[in-house]
Amino acid sequence: MARILTQETSLTRKRVALLKEVSALSWLVRVEGVAAGILLAAGAWRYLFHQHAGLWWAGCAVAALWGGHLLKIRQNQREEKHVQWGLQGEREMNRILEETLDNSHYVINDLLVRIGRKTAQVDHVIISPRGLFAIETKNWGGHIEGDENEDSWTQKSRMDRPPLPRSNPIKQVRRHVEFLAGKLKQAGMDWPDIRGLVVFTSPKATWYVHNATQEILTPREAAAAIARFQGGRTYSESEVTAVVNLFMREA
To answer: CA triplet 155, 159, 164: central angle to 5 degrees?
Structure first.
């Protein structure tokens, strides 16, 4: 089994933050709803009998806050579902890597690579005696289509809704490869065999990429490709350990 050195953290932190915000806003919405109802009722009575509209307008202001916070709750709930869906895809990829690859492979999940002021967040980095691999994992459903050379693709998940714009994952993983190569060069390490893989984890996904030179894989196809890969050379145990230690300092 592959050696899993780190687990996914950034999406987990984001999901926890969204859930905490939803919980706090839910309490606030209840208070605002009661306050708006009281102020509007009192304002209507005061205006009817005393021709003063101050309480009414205060109630309207609180009601507006209530509506805005309710909208924010719904937005957070939708985003949390997307984050949870992404987490499931990355965990599935991690599980298959662990099961398929032998213990000469080291897996670092959710690696943040820094070069100067620039950063790249890599879903999975696999370090082995035959090479280094960066995986960009997407748990998108529906039909995905785009051009390999364009920044934006589209995802059509439902017939009754317009397509959603999505960032080109091939360009993303190529940027990740550049960052990993730059980090190794910066450390004075000679490691020419670095490959980027794009993986779609959802069994409900279909895709078509125009001008494609890089294949999009399923999780098992990606793990099999890594297992059988033969680069230009075989890296020694000390070389593998040095790369593992370098990136673990970033983790």
So the answer is: 25
Contact 196, 213 (CB under 8 A): no
Q: What is the pLDDT along the chain (251 residues), one digit of tens a residue?
A: 889 998 878 888 888 888 999 999 899 889 888 888 887 777 777 767 766 767 767 778 888 888 889 999 899 998 888 888 888 889 999 999 999 999 999 999 999 999 988 999 999 999 999 999 999 999 998 999 999 999 999 998 877 778 889 999 999 999 999 999 999 999 999 888 999 999 999 988 999 999 999 999 999 999 999 999 988 889 999 999 999 999 998 77
Quote the pTM value: 0.85
Which pair of structure tokens corresponds to residue 237?
A: 């145990």
Which structure tokens are listed for 227? 């297992």
Helix (H) or strand (E) holding 10: helix 10-50
d(CA 251, CA 242): 14
Cβ neighbours around 236 below 10 Å, total: 10
What phi and psi, each to the nearest 5 degrees, are found at residue 83?
-65, -45
Residue type at 17 in one-letter notation: A
H helix runs in 139-250, sequence order = 169-186, 219-228, 237-248
Cβ–Cβ < 8 Å for 180, 112: no
d(CA 159, CA 137): 25
Residues 6+ apart with CB under 8 A from 165: 152, 153, 154, 155
